[in-house]
Amino acid sequence: MDDDLIEYAPNIPDNVLELIFSYLKLQDLRNCALVCKNWNRFLCDENNEVWRAQCLQKVPVEAFKNDLLTVVPSYKGKLRAFFHAWNPFDCSRHVYIKPNGFTLHRNPVAQSTDGSRGKIGFKHGRHAWEVRWEGPLGTVAVVGIATKDAAIQCHGYYALLGADDQSWGWNLVDNLLLHNGDAHGIYPLLNNAPKYKVGERIRVILDCDDNTLSFEKNYEFLGVAFTDLPDKLFYPTVAAVYGNTEISMVYLGAPLDG
Question: Which GO CC annotations does the UniProt entry carry (predicted)?
Fold first, then answer.
């Protein structure tokens, strides 16, 4: 970057910054945020025209055709969510990611359990993402986390997520917590806890600092589901068995509960 530009950086007005930054790539924008307080202030506005342009360039137009991204209020947040969405190269061969980039579709293949992981894993900090199941659950519908070593597809109808020591999941069908092939109790800890209804919002909260995994349903905190998670890189993951079911996942960033 030109030394003269750096020298006068604190005095550049916002309309000029907007013009300059509109020509830059995302990596360059990240670097610019470190130049001075003025540039950092400008780029911290997640709804300014720079982030709007980046969002509309990179996030598929199909993602804006329903209310999927309304849970993320800013343009930068929507862009961030897109880079964290389902990974089309890390899912079962019976799954494809729809053009909106956020929704997976499980093909109607008999005797198969099929899953998908997110593009980015987490090892530090606190992270939250929303999962929405559209279509029947079948006998297995598990949401949770997994490492790269966990299987993403298997033969038969099986609680794949939670079947080994590399994955942790909540089966929405029977309200069981699953890990290492064992059930770890009913969740949430309520008498006659209501079952998941298709379309309800599930929020997954991974705390890599406290080594816990928790869930919310329709913005109600359900309690800590798993504790003492190992120090590994975890990815948002789901596993499904029902043909033509669709599952959307939107990354939210750090949870807002402190």
Answer: SCF ubiquitin ligase complex; synapse
Domain of 235 in residue numbering reads as 87-253
Q: Is 229 within the bounds of a domain?
A: yes
Query: In sequence order, which residues have a C-beta less than 8 Å from that of residue 93 and are 6 or more positions away?
Result: 153
CA-CA distances (angstroms) from residue 239 to 8, 63, 67, 243? 53, 22, 23, 12
Total domains present in the chain: 2
User: Is residue 145 located within the same domain as residue 177?
Assistant: yes
- For residue 21, what pLDDT is reported? 83
Query: pTM here?
Result: 0.89
Per-residue pLDDT tens digits for 197-225: 888 999 999 999 999 999 999 888 999 99
Determine, yes or no, domain membership for 258: no
Q: Assign 3-class secondary structure to 179-247.
A: ECCEEEEECCCCCCCCCCCCCCEEEEEEECCCCEEEEEECCEEEEEEECCCCCCCEEEEEEECCCCCEE
Is residue 91 located within the same domain as residue 65?
no
